[in-house]
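> @MW can you paste both from yesterday?
MW: sure, first one:
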Amino acid sequence: MAFLLEIRYLCKYQFIKATNMEEKIKKLTNAQIELINWFDLQMTDEEVKELRQILIQHYSDKITTDIDKLFEKNDWGQEKIEEWRTMPT
């Protein structure tokens, strides 16, 4: 049991090399820690792909909603998209 707790503790940190070659510890984000805690089980490759797709869809929906709000707030429409499309780069 102590071994599992030690492994879990180590998994909550990722190690990065600093330019001076000293080891430094960088904490994982709160989302990464939460996912580690939630998925403390072995998943098949198919389940991992499914989870990835769920997360991608979630954030895609959030972005779409935010863009729709931005367009509505600024009273933009298809003509704004055309304006952006024809802008010189």
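MW: second:
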Amino acid sequence: MTLNKKWFIEKIQDFLTIDPSNRMSTDGSLMFDPNALVGIASGDDPIFKEYKQIIGNFHLMPKEAFSKFALSRSAFLKYTSSNFAL
């Protein structure tokens, strides 16, 4: 499986359409539109360093978040940079 923009957008849209956590408890209507605008950026984009400066050192840049959360879980080890075709 190749992870590309289309794959990510489909997964996000599927989640927003199907997952019960995107439904209002009162009437079952959607909280977030499944056709939401989705942007994809390189983890090396300088904007993330700017975010860290503005928000604070506790804010994780993409590579930091991936190292902290995904790499510590064996299920995500198959998703290395060689799998990503963005």
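> thanks! The chain has a mean pLDDT of 83.
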